[in-house]
Amino acid sequence: MIALANQCGISIVAKGDGKLPEPAAESAQQTEEAEPVVAVEAASTEKKLRVGVVGVGYLGKFHAEKYANMADADLVGVVDADPAQAEAIARKFGAQAYTDYKELLGKVDAVSIVVPTPAHFPVSQFFLENDVDVLIEKPMTTTLEEAEELIRIAESRGLIIQVGHLERFNPAVVALRDIIRQPMFIESHRLSLYKGRGTDVSVVLDLMIHDIDIILNFVKSDIRTIHASGVPVISEHVDIANARLEFENGCVANVTASRISTKNERKIRLFQRDGYMSVNFASRCITVIRQDEACDDSLIPGMDIRKLDFRDGDALEGELTSFVRAVSRREVSEVTGQMGRDALKIALSIMDQIAERCESLL
Question: pTM score, two decimals?
């Protein structure tokens, strides 16, 4: 639990790991400390969720690692088009290696789908049609029609879709849930060095969609208008983009994303009636500035400035723990297919507007 200090000025008021609660794991750990024998017996009778990872490249290998270290999950298989990569990851984490994702059928209860974006739909469709719950890396799909079809299949079969909007589980974002009430203006910057990864899609689907999802999560209103611009610079797709989102409730969000920057930067500022919050996702630090006439010893007279500093916390672990819990308990996932679809809809609208502007420049 994060508590703000009761004084003015800048102060580090809370430090924590920011991880999502894991009731079963915590209970087991506490019991183990008090009565080791009982804890072992209880754990041995609990059925583990059988999971697989499809695509164990740069990000997928971390999915495999997290699952392998979970007490309530059993990593049974990993899939990759590169046989050597599949074998290496499988051997490292004690799983079976496959080059065809269809070979996981009958062996898993749930899968993480961490393949290139254009393959999200066919791979997800296969598992859903065979009654396997799925975590789909963002963006959910490349078209709205594909996203809606996956949602339809899942709902008709009582299955769970979770979309991998990782920043939802960033400790800084988790902390904001208790602070943000009704933002009036939002400004976000997500800048990245050029790496070559993710260039099979626009920077809007690669990076900006993270902030679109965060903003939609905090602004409970429909979008009225979108103004967007962007250009391809190095890749065949748009590499830098900016969008202004105007909501029906009056909130305005200005969102910038670039994958050709000279530095990595992930920041967002949210302004509401009594002050504003500045978030650095990389350092997981939140600066909260609120009006307080009685406060005269801060850097800004009449303003109370406080910091929440998060030194620990694993967003991916939180995301996968959330997914395993939702599947095991048959609960609604924290980032549903519908939420993934909503973020995708805005991203595609931004891309369409950028495409029109780019055509006019030719």
Answer: 0.82
